[in-house]
């Protein structure tokens, strides 16, 4: 998940760290701890690698000291706001094959987009690029599922207008779920951009509210340290 997944989807050029969505079963945590030891990874913030903290939505942060990965930061999460649980994320995953590495599992594009709906300004341009790239790569052979995903999540006003006109029937079916599509179909770009901005601000506020109690826990743990 995170920036490395965005790179592999063709929407980013660089990422400083490695973000992983993990299964917090006992067996998997044992394997994870073994891998972190091989990387000589040290904890760099609270909380400790704790299943309860991960299950509540916290991230655990490590820095690798092993020569082959020196300086690499690894962030681990098991739960993200409004995303499915790990079993569903795993079922939905996209598999890519990399030379000399093998198969890698990525969050599916819809799950990755949802995970990027944060209060951080840098995540919203990335959402736009992820969807724009998917449209460009798949527009000539789009599935019904992809078309519905684009109409639900596209954040580029001019592109959304084109989609709404090209896929008028699907657009109409989704208007109750995403009312701004009616303005996309009309080609009202000014109103559409205002509503896209409002949609973004609403998601940022949801994320702030989600993290508020978690931030208080982090501060409590930090003081305890």
Task: Describe the protein's architecture and organization.
By secondary structure, the protein is α+β, with helices and mostly antiparallel strands. The protein has two domains: 2-108, no CATH class; 123-209, no CATH class. It is 56% helix and 13% strand. It has eleven helices and six strands. The protein has helices at residues 2-8, 26-38, 51-56, 86-92, 109-115, 123-138, 144-153, 157-166, 168-174, 181-186, 189-224, and strands at 17-21, 41-43, 59-64, 73-77, 94-98, 102-106. The strands form two sheets. The chain has a four-stranded mixed sheet with strand order 1-4-3-2. The two termini are 29 Å apart. The model has no long low-confidence stretch (mean pLDDT 94).
Brief overview:
The protein has 225 residues and is an alpha+beta fold.
By helix and strand content, what is the structural category? alpha+beta
Which overall shape is indicated by the principal axes computed on the Cα atoms?
A: globular
Strand order of the largest sheet: 1-4-3-2
Kindly estimate the percentage of residues that lie in beta strands according to DSSP: 5-15%
Largest sheet: 4 strands, mixed
In total, how many beta strands?
6
Q: Please tell me the total number of domains.
A: 2
Query: What's the Cα radius of gyration?
Result: 19 Å
Euclidean distance between termini CA atoms: 29 Å
Helix/strand order, N-terminal first: HEHEHEEHEEHHHHHHH
In the predicted model, the low-confidence regions spanning at least 5 consecutive residues are none
Per DSSP, the total helix count is 11
Helix proportion: 55-70%
What's the quaternary structure here?
single chain
Mean pLDDT comes to 94
């Amino acid at each position: 998940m995170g920036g490395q997944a965005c790179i592999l989807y063709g929407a980013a050029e660089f990422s400083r760290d490695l973000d992983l969505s993990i299964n917090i079963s006992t067996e998997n945590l044992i394997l994870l701890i073994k891998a972190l030891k091989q990387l000589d990874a040290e904890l760099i913030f609270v909380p400790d690698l704790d299943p309860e903290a991960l299950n509540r939505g916290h991230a655990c942060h490590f820095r690798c000291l092993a020569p082959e990965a020196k300086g690499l930061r690894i962030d681990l999460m098991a739960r993200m706001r409004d995303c499915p649980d790990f079993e569903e994320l795993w079922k939905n995953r996209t598999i890519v094959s990399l030379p000399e590495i093998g198969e890698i599992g990525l969050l599916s594009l819809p799950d990755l987009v949802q995970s990027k709906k944060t209060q951080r300004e840098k995540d919203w341009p990335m959402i736009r690029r992820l969807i724009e790239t998917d449209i460009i790569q798949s527009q000539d052979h789009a599935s019904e599922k992809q078309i519905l995903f684009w109409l639900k999540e596209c954040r580029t006003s001019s592109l959304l207008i084109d989609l709404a006109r090209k896929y008028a029937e699907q657009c109409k079916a989704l208007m109750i779920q995403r009312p701004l599509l009616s303005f996309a179909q009309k080609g009202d770009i000014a109103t559409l951009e205002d509503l896209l901005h409002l949609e973004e601000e609403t998601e940022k506020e949801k994320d702030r509210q989600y993290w508020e109690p978690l931030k208080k826990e982090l501060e409590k743990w930090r003081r305890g340290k």
